[in-house]
Amino acid sequence: MNTVVDNISNIIPISDNLKQQNLEDKAKHKFAQQFEALFLNKLLDSMQDTMPDSGFDTDAASGQVKGLFTMFMSQAVAKEGGVGLADEIYNSMSKDKNRDSIVNQEV
Hints:
- The protein is mostly helical.
- The chain has one domain.
- 84% of the residues lie in helices and 0% in strands.
- The chain contains 3 helices and no strands.
- It has helices at 3-50, 60-79, 85-106.
- 7% of the residues are buried.
């Protein structure tokens, strides 16, 4: 009887599913982190608008530098854990996936 061969052939698709799930998890983490960075960018941009001018030049180039600073700062903050928004987004997306897989199994 080929029970060993049957067992091995059943393991291989599971391995592919785990790889696919791992890729999906990484994509969810990346999306959540990018969304948090975008949110923080808008938040820091709005905060910066409320601050009085510091006496530096206010030409177009300085505005671009401030914009780049805000963008890179928000990305760095999100990458280091941010304010927890990325974690909540990821958890929400994972719960939806788990709920969908449970519903599909019951049907």
